[in-house]
Amino acid sequence: MRNTIVLVRADSFQKASTALSDLVRYGGMEIRGDPRIVPPSLSEWAFERISGERPKKKFMAHVVAQVDLPPRKAIGRLMDIHPPAHVLVIPPDTEAWEELLRRWRTFEKLRGFHPPKKTKAGELRKKREGKESNGPS
């Protein structure tokens, strides 16, 4: 499966890290690999390609991360949690996704980001495993 990419645009890298943590903790997403810092010009280009609009606001921090959910599910969960940054889902098979993945290894890793230990996805998985192990009574 080709991973969906999320583009986080924030006022600081701390806020971007918080937004990524919220995607994991409350959105039930798993971040694959290390989030990466992208140049603002590439971030704005990807934003335009996906949204069809020019960005209205300038941000200082631009970060991309790969997540384990299909785009539609990622968008739905994103709408539920309202993270403290502007987050855009970039589906596979788009021009922006192809360009970001092509240049992925050239981007600097986001230092200081550690996924939270307690997550909604983990809790849901434990509940399902508990129901399956108990079996029908």
Topology of this protein?
Elements: E1 4-10, H1 13-25, E2 31-37, H2 40-51, E3 61-67, H3 71-81, E4 86-90, H4 95-102, E5 108-109, H5 120-134
Antiparallel strand pairs: 1-3, 1-4, 2-3, 2-5
Helix pairs in contact: 2-4
Provide the structure class: alpha+beta
Widest β-sheet, arrangement of strands: 4-1-3-2-5
Share of β-strand residues = 15-25%
Intertermini distance: 37 Å
Largest sheet: 5 strands, antiparallel
Counting DSSP H or I runs of 4 or more residues, the number of helices is: 5
Spans of at least 5 consecutive residues whose pLDDT stays below 50 are none
The helix content is 40-55%
Would you mind describing this structure in some detail?
This protein has 137 residues and is of the alpha+beta class. It is built from five helices and five strands. A five-stranded antiparallel sheet has the order 4-1-3-2-5, sandwiched between helices. Helix 2 (40-51) runs antiparallel to helix 4.
Would you summarize the structure shown here?
This protein is an alpha+beta fold. It contains 5 helices and 5 strands.
What attributes characterize this protein structure?
single chain, 137 residues, alpha+beta, five-stranded antiparallel sheet, 5 strands
